[in-house]
Amino acid sequence: MPGNHVKHIQQDNPTNFKRTENNITLVGKEIFMNVIKEVTDSGESDSGDSDSGESLSKSKMYDLGVLVEGTPLDSSSKESNILFRWSILYFMPFFYGAITRLPFIYYVIHLRKTFELSWDMVGIFVGCYQANRVITNSLAMMLPPQLVHFLGTAMAIAGNVIVLTSKDTSKTSFIVGTAIIGFAETIACIQAYAKKHLAATHQEIKKAMQMQYAAVLIGVTMAFYAGGAIYQQYGVQGIAYFGLVLAVCEMASLLLFLCLKRKSELVPKNKEDDTVYEIDEDESNNKFKDVNLDEDQIESFEEDEEQVIGEERSKQQDVDTVLDKFNKSGVSANYITYIIAFTFAVESVTIGFNLAISPVYIMDQFEQDTKFIGLIFGFGALAGTLMTLGISFTSSGSAFMKKYIPSPIDIYVAFVGIALSVFCAAVPNFPIHITGIILLMACNDLGSFTINSLQGTINSEKAYKKVGPLGQVVRRTMNVITAVTGPKLYSIMPQLPYLIAGSITLVWAVLIMIVLSKRTKANQQEVMDKVVFSAGNVNVDKRTETTLRQMSFGRLEMLSSTVKDWSRRRLFIDK
Hints:
Layout: H1 29-40, H2 58-64, H3 78-101, H4 103-114, H5 119-140, H6 145-165, H7 171-180, H8 187-197, H9 202-265, H10 295-312, H11 316-324, H12 335-366, H13 370-393, H14 395-404, H15 409-425, H16 430-458, H17 461-492, H18 496-532, H19 542-550, H20 553-574
């Protein structure tokens, strides 16, 4: 009986109900609009001017920052809401980026020049730092992100304290202390906060991911600039002080986020309506509980459903409505999401070799000090930062990308740019090498930026809990491989790591072009067959085809995944 698969939320309005993570709901315009209204009706605006029953607009929700249940953090305190949003979008990503990139300026150089270790041992110890980054991301797939974030940041604080309190000649303390700083690799946790707490629409999810990564790049730029100068002037002690300050600031940002989150949870619920149920993320079966709809209401739903779906799916505004609910839909990951996750690994090959080898390469081949190396790395990070800021925060930059380099073409451009830049870096000529390093870092940041944004968009919150950390795991695992093999390859021929990285990146660029192009055509056909034709539009005009062709890859992927999920649910209900 279909009634056994319906969960009632409010008795006075039978169409006003939520979808739990693993459960099936009826679909259609009324249901989607009531879900959105239910999310936005839970509180007043921060100004206090609106009535208690007036809903917040989706854009207002994003400006204030809301929890997944839709409750504003504190409607009486706009400052708290802004701090909550800034802690997720700016503070934590910024300090994370600075903490995790700082060791690359000095670690290899200090191991090689001060302790005179062999290239094999240098590779092993740098690999240990990268391996700890893998461990943190792996834990994020199994444990609550707040716990993993706290533990990782605490380890970074401890690592800097160990280096700070050790003697300059203490090899063990320096290696161990620096290696455990790698546990501060918490970007997957920070991105999970944004998907769960800030995003109201699919566009806002994408924007949140972009803003976070832009903040990461600003932190990276600062760490490279300041790190090279501090190490040159004050040595390991100065770097340890600087790293400790960054780690403490990250911890303070995390505690601020947790306090404001806790404060929001103390907002009283609507006690008059005891039939409202929260999203149960731990529910493991596909059955609804607490059925309160009578048989006449259920039959009415079933009679009207097909007509509502046929009329509304073909309209653009209802496509937006569907995509806005994609994040909470519980749609599972598919092979494309895993390919995008693996793309992180390929993207990390060039930057991994660059960070492991380039400081020593520049020092040995061109006789430059760490201050200059930090300056060059800073220029590369700054170029990538300005590029991503232009895309994220300027209308002209967004319009340019949308018109000339839409998704997934932006990924193709980034990967081809990375490959060509790393080949330039392999040229043993000072101006060409430096130009290649700067362009490599800029294109790498563009690649990471676009992949992060796409991965955050095409995965539902449920799928992202697994795929998000997985992408970082494969990325940092490849960093371990490049850290261990890079010094050995460098000892064979200084340019060899660059040549290998460029070749791998170029091959993957061609492969991903083929895969995503085929996927785009398949998605267009899927939407055409199951939405347009099923809605009764047998004679599809050119404008419909043009609209599908112009739709971005991420948007089309979400729509296709939703259509497939609808089809699966319809089969289940029919049974």
